Description:
The structure is a single chain. 72% of the residues lie in helices and 0% in strands. By secondary structure, the protein is mainly alpha-helical. The chain has one domain (9-203).
Amino acid sequence: MHSPLDRDLARRIGPVKAARLYSNIVSPPVMFAVLGLILALTALPNWQGWAWAAIYGFFISLLPILFVLYLLRRGIISELHMSDTRERHLPYISAVLSALFAYGLVQWLNGPPLLACLTLFNTIELAALGAINVFWLISLHSTAVAAVTIIVGLVYGWGYALLLIPLVLSVCYVRLYLRRHTLGQVLAGLGLGVASVLSLTLIGCW
């Protein structure tokens, strides 16, 4: 695979800059933070819903981001998107542990079942991605956007899921345009996202 278009600062102009910005905005932590908020408020449309959304967002989104930024500041990783799979090991391990802690917290405090399912999904998804990452750079962006779309379909109806198709296509296109992933890596990510979500329906989730 060619070097990512946005890896060098000099190339982050025009369409490349816009694509990188979009990719950062619709990053997996952001997508799941928004989904967590929606699911929490669906279950508890009051201050408790907001509180659970904040707890979920902290452990699933904010804490892993802060850890990556710490590694970047210390020079342990060379760039935010971590094109080198070897740089992703620590972030994946920390994210799995954080998601597992969040799942335990939701279960222990009798939190919203939908949020329990989402934290369990995050744990399984991140563990699978971490294992695959040992030998292959699968697309986390496409995994996340596929999962979000399927969860929305299962919880709110497939009409709402269809509204997210432009998001799915744009996220995948941007990752390919920036040369962050190959087509195979993007398709594998989509498949993993769908399979991970559907597997949880076997234990009564969603």
